[in-house]
Design a protein that fits this description.
About 7% of the residues have low confidence. The chain is 7% helix and 47% strand. The protein is mostly beta strands. It contains four helices and 30 strands. The protein is elongated, with a radius of gyration of 26 Å. The strands form five sheets. Strands 1, 2, 4, 6, 8, 10, 12, 14, 16 and 17 form a ten-stranded mixed beta sheet that branches. The chain has a six-stranded mixed beta sheet with strand order 19-28-27-21-25-24, with no helix packed on it. It has a six-stranded antiparallel beta sheet with strand order 20-30-29-26-22-23, covered by helices on one side.
């Protein structure tokens, strides 16, 4: 159905009924009418999705969505209302902002999805989220056993506390949180799982921390903004010869960084692998307790001016039996502290020429991690006598121990 054409044919004062499904906008309503849906979504990549230019308009049982990127600096408009044309609204869900209705005006700093991560078994658990809304909102949910520390949000910044009642192991948390303003409803998806035991003390320390905050309430702490001459931006799955970027055999630095929204330990580990992507022994894992490769060519340097961890690479010194270097991150004691990479932002790796400090390339994974507790971010490997850099950005759920087993190191 071409929605605008159907509306244009509708006589003034009549009702356009939409069957369940999706309808592409934008839609201009320039006569009195009623648009009534049944599990019906009207969407457009940019707003306004619906532009109301006539009095006497009613919207009922609809979902109206801006599907393109939104931000507080450039909000995407779901519904625009011209002066004197305030519509009747009945059970309308929005993704986007509203123009022309003072009771709904303003920007929304809310996540599309809230991932509660892995929660403890048979324990009442809470998580806190910082967000910002322009109007008073009541909170509702369709998730059994989920409640809120506060039942309403006030205009401006808010601390939203989500409380999950005791549940059995392997219970999947899936549903929605609804922000109900005077006229509209906004939906935030909620995911998570009940998966581990935790003591009261450990739980108390964990739940006092903030798991998500809006951009408005968290100024950017991206250290890469300070790099005067950024290197080549790599995408997931791309590969490139290092000799194309730096003098052959020049010592390099692999620099890694991230921004964790909760204070926990993330460790960098580098696995030195053979042609079958296996280690020869425990000495082929370079990490905080074993910071240097025995034969030379690779060592951890610690933090730099911008980066949380730096790895020195002298690839010409890497023994010929090694074919691949895998750069990994893992969360220390993730099971004890119930932590995952869902609370990590701004993860990156960049390659730097050591002598000049010039950034050669950078890779910023576009994936939002969820229940993963370890990440393989990139690899350097031999190919026809040359070293190449490959982006990976793959997550794993068994932490450093799972990576060790994958690469051939036995763990207890």
């Amino acid at each position: 159905m071409q929605l605008q054409k159907e509306l244009d044919k509708l006589a003034a004062g009549n009702t356009l009924k939409l069957k369940a499904g999706e309808y592409e906008g934008p839609l201009i309503i320039n006569k009195p009418c009623k648009i009534e849906g049944y599990n019906s979504t009207i969407w457009a990549a940019c707003g306004p999705v619906i532009d109301i230019q006539s009095p006497g308009v009613t919207l009922k049982n609809l979902s109206i969505e801006v599907t393109g990127e939104q931000s507080s600096a450039s909000p995407s408009v779901a519904v625009a209302v011209q002066d004197g044309c305030k519509p009747g609204i009945d059970s309308v869900e929005l993704q986007g902002t509203v123009l022309g209705m003072d009771e709904e005006a303003g920007s929304w700093e809310i996540p599309a999805v809230i991932d509660l991560g892995i929660l403890p078994v048979n324990t009442r658990t809470s998580r806190k989220f910082l967000l910002s809304v322009p109007v008073v909102c009541a909170l509702e949910t369709d998730v059994n056993g989920l409640d809120f520390g506060n039942k309403k949000l006030s205009p401006g910044p808010n601390t939203l506390e989500i409380v999950m009642e005791p549940s059995l192991k392997n219970t999947v948390i899936w549903g929605s949180l609804f922000l109900v303003s005077r006229y509209f409803v906004r939906r935030i998806r909620i995911t998570g799982m009940i998966g581990h035991d935790a003591s009261v003390d450990e739980l108390g320390r964990y739940t006092s921390q903030v798991a998500w905050h809006s951009a408005e309430m968290a100024p950017s702490r991206n250290p890469l903004e300070q790099v005067a001459e950024p290197g080549r931006l790599m995408q997931k799955g791309q590969r490139i010869s290092i000799d194309e970027l730096a003098a052959p055999g020049a010592p390099l630095i692999a620099a890694l960084g991230w921004d964790s929204e909760m204070p926990f330990d993330i460790d960098v580990g580098v696995f030195i692998l053979d042609e079958f992507e296996r280690v020869h022994g425990d000495a082929d894992l370079i990490y905080y307790n074993q910071p240097e490769l025995a034969g030379g060519g690779l060592r951890l340097l610690g933090a730099g001016d911008l980066d949380i961890e730096r790895v020195e690479l002298d690839l010409k010194r890497i023994a010929p039996e090694y074919h691949r270097i895998s750069f990994c991150l893992s969360i220390y004691e993730f099971e004890k502290n119930l932590q995952t990479f869902s609370s990590v932002r701004g993860l990156y790796i960049r390659l730097i020429e050591q002598a000049t400090g010039k950034e050669l390339l950078r890779y910023i994974p576009d994936k939002t991690f969820s229940l993963e507790t370890a990440v393989v971010i990139a690899q350097i490997y031999r190919y026809k006598g040359q070293w190449r850099f490959a982006t990976v950005g793959a997550g794993f759920k068994d932490g450093l121990g799972g990576l060790c087993r994958q690469y051939g190191i036995e763990t207890e």
